[in-house]
């Protein structure tokens, strides 16, 4: 095991609807690592839903809450972290999290993302009915950033949550030693 790969956390990044939360929970079950969902933490801390934060205080407040959560996570170990699909990819704290985190980029075909995103309406950036045009536009804006951060990429279009989790744990084990 090289120093470079002495990773202590698994960090899931990717577009909205790529499966970060459900796959993160499944990885947590397989590894016994604690699961942290940055959106969920923001809701816990503020006592408001993501939608309410955006409506009441706007995107800037959401972003600063997200930064605080990332900062709090920096010293922690043995975590599976699901980041928000609209996280600031230039965040210094996210960059710092890379020192201890194995960054997994979850991807999926835009059509599949749209199907998944139509099921839930809690994404202020997309609105109620995400069009393919909007999804493709956001993917084009964010794609390079995601790729730069990723240690490993996984297309989840045609796999179950369990399959995706197993592949990620296997990869993590290969590079960092057994996760438990
Ligand atoms: C958001 C989308 C969400 C999450 C957060 C903000 C938005 O995406 O980042 O709720 O601004 O539209 P995912 O939960 O699918 O990653």
Summarize, please.
This protein is α/β, with parallel strands linked by helices and 180 residues long. It contains eight helices and five strands; from the N terminus they run βαβαααβαβααβα.
Report the strand count. 5
Number of domains: 1
Ligands (ions, cofactors included): shikimate-3-phosphate
Order of helices and strands: EHEHHHEHEHHEH
User: Can you give the mean pLDDT?
Assistant: 91
The fraction of residues in strands falls at 5-15%
| CATH architectural group | 3-Layer(aba) Sandwich
Weakly predicted, low-confidence segments: none
Shape: globular
CATH superfamily: P-loop containing nucleotide triphosphate hydrolases
CA-based gyration radius: 16 Å
For the sheet with most strands, the description reads:
5 strands, parallel
CATH topology: Rossmann fold
Query: According to CATH, what is the class?
Result: Alpha Beta
Fraction of residues in helix: 40-55%
What labels would you give this structure?
180 residues; alpha/beta; Rossmann fold; 5-stranded parallel beta sheet; 8 helices; globular; binds shikimate-3-phosphate
């Amino acid at each position: 095991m090289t120093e470079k790969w002495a990773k202590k956390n698994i960090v899931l990044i990717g577009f909205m609807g790529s499966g970060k939360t459900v796959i993160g929970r499944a990885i947590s079950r397989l590894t016994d690592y604690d699961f942290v969902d940055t959106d969920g933490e923001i809701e816990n801390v503020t006592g408001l839903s993501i939608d309410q934060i955006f409506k009441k205080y706007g995107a800037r407040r959401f972003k600063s809450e997200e930064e605080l959560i990332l900062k709090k996570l920096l010293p922690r170990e043995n975590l599976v972290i699901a980041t928000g699909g609209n996280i600031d990819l230039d965040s210094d704290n996210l960059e710092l999290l890379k020192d201890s985190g194995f960054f997994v980029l979850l991807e999926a075909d835009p059509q599949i993302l749209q199907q998944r995103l139509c099921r839930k309406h809690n994404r202020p950036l997309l609105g109620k009915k995400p069009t393919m045009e909007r999804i493709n536009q956001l993917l084009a804006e964010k794609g390079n950033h995601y790729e730069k951060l990723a240690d490993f990429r996984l297309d989840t279009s045609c796999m179950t949550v369990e399959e995706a989790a197993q592949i990620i744990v296997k990869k993590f084990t290969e590079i960092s030693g057994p996760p438990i």
